[in-house]
Design goal:
By secondary structure, this protein is of the alpha+beta class. It has two helices and five strands. The chain starts with 6 loop residues before the first helix and ends with a strand.
């Protein structure tokens, strides 16, 4: 850990403060992931990319949503996170 008299200390502190402000403003502070979540939806099931506000697609059956999410995740070498109807995580499939 840098001493308070070193420039590195103040640079690190400034980075932490700016990151906190950015998070409060809703600005992404970490790299984008392509993880796909299969979540319950009023029309059945939906796919939602991690960190996205909109759904990628909706389906009547969970199995159809999982198949589509797997295709997306394979293309981006990411994960599929499958949720139960209560929103808890049931399974995670990794394609990296």
């Amino acid at each position: 850990m840098a001493k308070i008299t070193e420039a590195k200390f103040w640079i690190d502190l400034l980075k932490k403060v700016l990151k906190g402000i950015a998070k409060d403003q809703g600005i992404r502070t970490s790299p984008k992931t392509w993880n796909q979540h299969v979540v319950p939806h009023e029309k059945g099931w939906a796919i939602k990319g991690e960190g996205n506000s909109r759904y990628t697609d909706t389906f009547r059956k969970q199995s159809t949503a999982i198949r589509r999410a797997k295709r997306i995740a394979k293309n981006h070498k990411s994960d599929v996170i499958i949720h139960r109807t209560d929103g808890t995580i049931r399974d995670r499939i990794s394609f990296d």
